[in-house]
Design goal:
Blueprint: H1 9-23, H2 32-40, E1 93-96, E2 104-108, E3 124-128, E4 136-137
Parallel strand pairs: 1-4
Antiparallel strand pairs: 1-2, 2-3
Length: 147
């Protein structure tokens, strides 16, 4: 119900391995390209819902009055991509990988503490694998089984 925060990439990858063993399915962190495609769709929109930014549609600075904090993953239903992926423009950024740069971890998306002018699904930031931030979490992906 709430995003995972303050874990590093080693922790996120270890969880993916554990969850893969538990479920018998191959779970992992998304690549930057996979994450961006899920967020922007085929038309390359700037935000999951289009190109117009409205702060109340995502968990970001200005979305509500008072203290800015992370929120439940169900709180901003309009923060949804063309593929139905929720919470990409706000709440927490997600760790992503780049197979060509395995020594780094990348983040994509917006976060609860970000100002609206810094939220764009094309932006990615790079960090060391040991980095832990209050605005970064992770989500897992897996490939569709081939039939």
């Amino acid at each position: 119900d709430w995003p995972v925060l303050l874990v590093n990439a080693h922790n996120a990858k270890a969880y993916a391995q554990w969850y893969s063993k538990r479920t018998g399915l191959d779970w992992r962190l998304p690549t930057c390209w996979q994450w961006e495609k899920a967020a922007r769709g085929v038309d390359g929109r700037r935000l999951p819902w289009g190109n117009y930014f409205e702060a109340t549609w995502a968990s970001v600075r200005g979305s509500q009055k008072g203290r800015v904090l992370p929120s439940s993953i169900y709180e901003h239903s309009l923060d949804q991509s063309p593929y139905g992926v929720c919470g990409l423009a706000g709440n927490v950024q997600d760790f992503c990988t780049d197979p060509n740069q395995p020594e780094l971890i990348f983040t994509k998306g917006g976060a609860w503490a970000h100002h609206p002018e810094f939220i764009d699904m094309a932006i990615q930031r790079s960090f060391s694998l040991d980095t832990r931030l209050e605005v970064v979490g992770f989500r897992l992906v897996r490939s569709e089984p081939l039939e």
